[in-house]
C-alpha cells in the first residue's frame, strides 16, 4: 500500500516583513541581492527571504523524483513528488512556508530513500544553511 511522505520547510528569513517595508531597507537589500547574482529578495508571509536559494532548494526537492534511483533496478522509485508555497488563509502554518508530498509504493522504498539514497541524503545535507526548521509526517491512506 502507498506511503505518503509530507515534508514542511521553514526557510531562514532575513528580516521581519515590517522592517522590509521601510524604503531604506529595500534600498539596502535589493542592491545586495543584485550584487550577488544568484540571490534575489522577496517577501513571503511575514518575512523577507533570499529566494533564489529557497527556490533552487524547492526545485531540487522536486527533482528527487527523477534523481533517486532504486539500488537494484536503477529506475525511479519515488512515485509522486509535488510541492509549493503555503497559501492557506488560516494563518496557522507556524512559520512553515513550503510543503512537499512524495509517494512511495512500499516501506522498503521509503526506508532506502530516508537512510541510504545518495541523492536524497545529499539534498538533505545541502539545505542545512537555508532551512530553519523541517517537519515530516508520513501516512498510509486509510490506516489509523
Keywords:
144 residues; alpha+beta; Alpha-Beta Plaits; 2 domains; four-stranded antiparallel beta sheet; three-stranded antiparallel beta sheet; 36% helix; 28% strand; globular
Polypeptide structure, described:
The protein has 144 residues and is an alpha+beta fold. It folds into 2 domains: 99 residues, Alpha-Beta Plaits; 32 residues, no CATH class. 36% of the residues lie in helices and 28% in strands. The strands form 2 sheets. The chain has a 4-stranded antiparallel beta sheet. The chain is globular, with a radius of gyration of 17 Å. The relative contact order is 0.26. About 18% of the residues have low confidence.
Q: What's a quick, concise take on this entry?
A:
InterPro entries: Dabb, Dimeric_a/b-barrel, HS1/DABB1-like. This protein folds into two domains: 3-13 and 52-139, 2-Layer Sandwich (Alpha-Beta Plaits), CATH 3.30.70; 17-48, no CATH class.
Query: Count of DSSP helices?
Result: 5
Q: Strand order within the widest sheet?
A: 5-6-1-7
What is the global morphology?
Answer: globular
Distance between the termini: 14 Å
**Any idea what the radius of gyration is?**
17 Å
Overall number of domains: 2
Which stretches of 5+ consecutive residues score pLDDT under 50? 15-40
Total count of strands: 7
- Main beta sheet strand tally, sense and closure: 4 strands, antiparallel
Quickly name the level 1 CATH class of the largest domain: Alpha Beta
Class per helix and strand makeup: alpha+beta
Amino acid at each position: 500500500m502507498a506511503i505518503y511522505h509530507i515534508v514542511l520547510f521553514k526557510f531562514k528569513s532575513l528580516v521581519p516583513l515590517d522592517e522590509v517595508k521601510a524604503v531604506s531597507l529595500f534600498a539596502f537589500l535589493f542592491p545586495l541581492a543584485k550584487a550577488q547574482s544568484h540571490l534575489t529578495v522577496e517577501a513571503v508571509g511575514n518575512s523577507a527571504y533570499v529566494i533564489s536559494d529557497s527556490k533552487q532548494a524547492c526545485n531540487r526537492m522536486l527533482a528527487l523524483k527523477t534523481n533517486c534511483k532504486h539500488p537494484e533496478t536503477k529506475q525511479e522509485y519515488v512515485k509522486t513528488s509535488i510541492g509549493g508555497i503555503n497559501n492557506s488563509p488560516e494563518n496557522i502554518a507556524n512559520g512553515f512556508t513550503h510543503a512537499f508530498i512524495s509517494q512511495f509504493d512500499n516501506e522498503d522504498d521509503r526506508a532506502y530513500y530516508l537512510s541510504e539514497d545518495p541523492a536524497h541524503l545529499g539534498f538533505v545535507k545541502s539545505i542545512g544553511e537555508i532551512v530553519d526548521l523541517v517537519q515530516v509526517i508520513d501516512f498510509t491512506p486509510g490506516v489509523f
